[in-house]
Amino acid sequence: MTLIAVVAAITASAQGRMDLRINEVMVQNDSNYVDQYDHRAGWIEIFNASHGTNGIEKMFITTLKPNIIQDYFKAEEQKSNKKRNQLLQELRDSRPGEIFEIPRGDVATKVKPRSHVVFFADGNIEAGTFHLPFIMKPGQENYIALYDVNGDLVDEVTVPATLPADQSYARCSEDSIDLHGSHNFESQLWQVCDGSTEAKAITPAKFNARPINNNIDMFKKDDPSGILLTLMSMGVVFSALLMLYIMFKLFGKAFTAKDKKEDEVVNKAVEEPTTEAAQEGGNDEAIAAICMALYQHLNAHDEESGVLTFDRTHELHSAWGSKGNLLLRVPERHDNH
Q1: pLDDT tens digits, residue range 244-297?
Q2: 12, 50 in Cβ contact below 8 A?
Q3: What is the 3-state secondary structure (H, E, C) of 175-241?
């Protein structure tokens, strides 16, 4: 059970990392969202689309195109048996301005469910965990990719060269996020946000202001009063309670039957010897006679030595052994009377 739990936890962790998404990018930042040093730089927002906390430490953010990384993997894997995380680290060392490994030790790298983190593309990694070694170039296409620690591509985006300053390139809605390892990199799922409306709000490190939930819209249309939703909710709750009641009843009967069967076995084992004795013709008198004979045989008197002794030290006898004292005295006769 422990092994199964560990494997499930590792699998869940791996799936959780695949639910991370590049959600919004600003290339030229002249007036929006400054860092702790009041510096204005381009930024990349990563969104945790899952409902569990995910750690992004040891993941890689890069501007290298996938063909460069894949060609590097193929060439190096033919030479050695190194794992892809080692190869990515070697590639980071050889091209430090184009690939960044998110360091360990910062609690802020634990991204909470449905939350965001922002990385500044200011070329200054000494400023902290969330500062990238590269700078995005205005007026040019900027490719950004997020890789898992094992070398799997998690998400990618190509920001168009036409993106104006102080505007972001963001996902249109949450419908553009395919979870659990699926990817959808189509450009029509992205839009340019200028902050003019709620649908085009610039939201660095905040919940995306463009959520779409088809289920909620469907319930609003088909059940405006909420009666159907209430009945469904109560039905689920009471069905669960009924199932629990039935399960407890069945378990109780099973354990009662088991205990009754064990008692019957014990009682049968106790009664069998008495029954066998009765079948052999024994009765209470015979059993009592056998028990008495055994008692007398096992508790017989001690064997005597057979040597007679005479004790001369005590010649006086007590009154009870003196026949003269026990006999009635004859009264003396007097001639005068």
Answers
A1: 999 999 988 888 887 787 777 766 765 655 555 555 555 778 888 888 888 877
A2: no
A3: HHCCCCCCCCCCHHHEEEECCCCCCCCCCCCCCCCCCCCHHHHHHHHHCCCCHHHHHHHHHHHHHHH
